Amino acid sequence: MVINMKTNIFKVFHYYRDKNEFIKQLSGDEFKWKFVINFCLNIIILLFIYGFVMGIYHGFYQSISAGIKLFSLFILSLLICFPTFYVIQIIIGSRIKLLNLISIILSGALLSGWILVAFIPIVIFFMLTGDNYYFLQLLHIAIMAFASIFGMKLIIEALKYNCENEDIYPKTGVTIFRIWIVIFLFVSIQLGWNLRPFMSKHNEKFQIFRQYEGNFYTAILYSFDKIVNPQKEDYKKDTYPK
Fold it and tell me: Which pTM does this prediction carry?
């Protein structure tokens, strides 16, 4: 069966409609590198669009910066973590091809990208009606987590297909992938913390990178605290992200 890339992208976006066929195509021998490149380009576009919307809270330059940072965050995290995952797959006896494994992971990222873009009207609504920086910060984190869950679900189902139907992927590989996801998550969080800011307050000047004390987790707690206690003064030092 010849894969039509436009059809593939449509199927990722509506993968619940014919999920089994799409997963079968991802695992087939006819999958080519040009399709992987197409996946990458679409992921970059989708993540840039969502990052642009994140940054528009501050201004145009922050939007461009956030858009570039968001797709760079995904690419760099994948480059850092994927070699370890692939080597372990070989060690445990996986016979799945490198191209198919990459395409499966990218398909999950592409699905997540579509979900992020689908949430843009909601994000814009809260920007226009609420305009609370700390609420928007937590909203973006929640949306990204939600989109990632669906992306990971598609990847796990594709790996299970190769395990149960094609018999080229060991069952232990699915468990290892779940562990790898946790590692990928921590790498992404740490990398995202170093690439901040993605958003900035209206009164902040534009900067590509900033240095703060603290960490991602204390920053989330601080944002919650600012929503519950909006009159509480900010810390004098730049301890938390802006």
Answer: 0.84
